[in-house]
Model the fold of this input.
Amino acid sequence: MAEKYIIFLFAALFMITVGIVAIGILVSYNLSKTYKKQFLQTLLYHQIFLYSFFLYGVWGRILLGQVLINLELSPAIINKASFFIPALGLPFLIICWYMLIKFFNEMNGFVLSKITTIGYFIFFGILITAGVWYVNTGNFKAIETPEIIIIRLLIVMNLISNIFIVVPSLFKKTHKSKIELNFPSAFILIYLTGILIYSAGLWFIKEHFLISSATILLMFAASAQLPVFTLILIKKIPAKELSGDLDFEGFCNKFEISKREAEIILEICAGKSNQAIANSLFITLQTVKDHAHRIFTKTGVKNRVHLTNLVREKITKK
Done:
């Protein structure tokens, strides 16, 4: 009776987690398709690789365990075989972490360099190579529960990775004109708390089936927070501002441009020199220079050419 109850519980849990996967991926897909932003495309890839690992590494492991038990193999063989499911799913997790790094950087207006990307994958390539070497040593073969070792290793790596990826995003800011989206500290705290709780549950996942069930559910649910939080924040941003499809008034409102500064921007975009602008607006040359400096600071550009390009990029052509 108890066994049937556990099977029913895990079947229901599987259906719920599949539903959560659908929500996370569909929300990410709709955001990416609707707003056509690179950081949203990256979020979609993150969700795909993360849930690929979860479905393969978690549910694949549970299914394999049932198959091996039905074959009436020894516990030692089952433990050894079970090790390889989460281990083989590691590439999904590595790519998922990379997409998380990329997402938070792009959201804050930064672009990962090729050197950073290459260095990231070289680091994990070396780590995996060292792991394979250790597996082939006699020391690893003497471990009675290799599955527990790999699970706890992945827990620590996932927790550390999320903390070192997400927390710096609160402080690493570029000019506001380049920031795509700003996650409030409360959202970050909720996200990391969810990861911390399910990490603690995973540490003791073998203790009781209720612990494992609650942990699996929280793991899937916590991972769907990013697309849900992103959706909530995007809904608060005017559609024109988010898409960059602004009129000149919207452009000035976005960058807090004054009326006089707006007049100077139009003159700069018309190709006039500072002296010509001063003559046209009946102001001194120094006043034009002062206003231009404030305009450059507010918009995050370095010169007149960059300002002109920014205006053309942001404003709808009519």
Summary: The chain has a mean pLDDT of 80. The first helix runs from residue 2 to 35. The chain has two domains: 2-237, 243-314.
